[in-house]
């Protein structure tokens, strides 16, 4: 007769910052998307993580800043509003991580909690396309073009916006929310992710998260006035974007997320849970 004792030891290691909710804060609507997925933000069934690398990140940041600069300087489509406090956008790896966790489900719709330790509340823009090139989903065959298409489609909502709706404080207007998040003056960072469905629909998805988030009811989208005249203390007009405040921090454009240039590897976060399973099998044999 054999007697087996199976000892399963689970060690949960976390950083000194604490558990998941401290690194990825919950909100009034529930748990953070990262914590809901228990830090496993890989693609779910019938979903494939899309590419995200230096060139795609740079394209996303550049198109955002170009259009923010255009609006702050007086976009003729909006009766030449001028914005005095529009910030340059930089890239943020934590915002990309939360975007990964959501878009790697390949499900259309916003998540409820996507904040980070730095940005407790974060905005979100989503884009979905069936466009293809060379027989592949555009997000995979030409990811920079796909990224540009997505951002420009959000900004195109200016065509249906009413100047009166943004002259003072933010009001919810259907069909313009992507655009108003894009021109939210105090937003300073974005982080984005792409994915594609592997079912017969062949959708490509883009998710950009924004920190700090905009589209807050009864809060000003921006300050009126000559560009860069109301920048935060210590900041001046950007050398590259003359109507925006500050300079882009490009340090996060080339972050290694562990999957190379071809996919959205999950970066090892300082506050991640690491579960180690040690199985010790002790065998006693009694004659």
Automatic annotation (TrEMBL):
Pfam families the record matches: CAP (PF00188)
Keyword terms of this UniProt record: Secreted, Signal
SCP domain: residues covered: 55-218
GO cellular component term, pick one: extracellular region
UniProt-listed InterPro entries: Allrgn_V5/Tpx1_CS, CAP_dom, CAP_sf, CRISP-related
Stored SMART domains: SCP
Nucleotide-binding in keyword set: no
Signal peptide extent: 1-16
Organism annotation: Acanthoscelides obtectus
Localisation: Secreted
Protein name (record): SCP domain-containing protein
Membrane-spanning segments: none
């Amino acid at each position: 007769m054999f007697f087996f004792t199976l000892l399963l030891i689970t060690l949960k290691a976390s950083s000194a910052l604490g558990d998941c909710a401290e690194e990825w804060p919950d909100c009034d609507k529930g748990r953070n998307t990262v914590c809901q997925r228990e830090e496993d933000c890989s693609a779910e069934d019938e979903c494939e993580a899309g590419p995200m690398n230096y060139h795609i990140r740079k394209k996303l940041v550049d198109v955002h800043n170009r259009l923010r600069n255009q609006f702050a300087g007086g976009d003729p489509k909006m009766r030449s509003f001028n914005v005095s406090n529009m910030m340059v956008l930089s890239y943020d790896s934590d915002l990309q991580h939360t975007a990964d966790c959501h878009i790697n489900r390949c499900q259309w719709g916003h998540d409820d909690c996507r904040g980070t330790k730095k940005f407790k509340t974060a905005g979100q823009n989503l884009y979905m396309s069936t466009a293809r090139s060379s027989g592949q989903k555009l997000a995979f065959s030409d990811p920079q073009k796909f990224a540009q298409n997505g951002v420009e489609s959000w900004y195109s909502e200016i065509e249906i916006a009413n100047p009166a709706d943004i002259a003072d404080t933010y009001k919810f207007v259907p069909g313009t929310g992507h655009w108003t998040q894009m021109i939210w003056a105090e937003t300073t960072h974005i982080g984005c992710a792409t994915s594609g469905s592997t079912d017969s629909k062949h959708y490509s998805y883009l998710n950009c998260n924004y920190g700090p988030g905009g589209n807050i009811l009864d809060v000003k989208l921006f300050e009126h006035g000559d560009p860069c005249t109301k920048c935060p203390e210590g900041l001046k007009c950007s050398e590259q974007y003359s109507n925006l405040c500050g300079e882009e921090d490009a340090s996060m454009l080339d972050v290694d997320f562990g999957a190379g240039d071809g996919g959205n590897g999950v970066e090892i976060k300082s506050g991640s849970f690491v579960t180690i399973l040690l199985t010790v099998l002790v065998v006693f044999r009694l004659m």
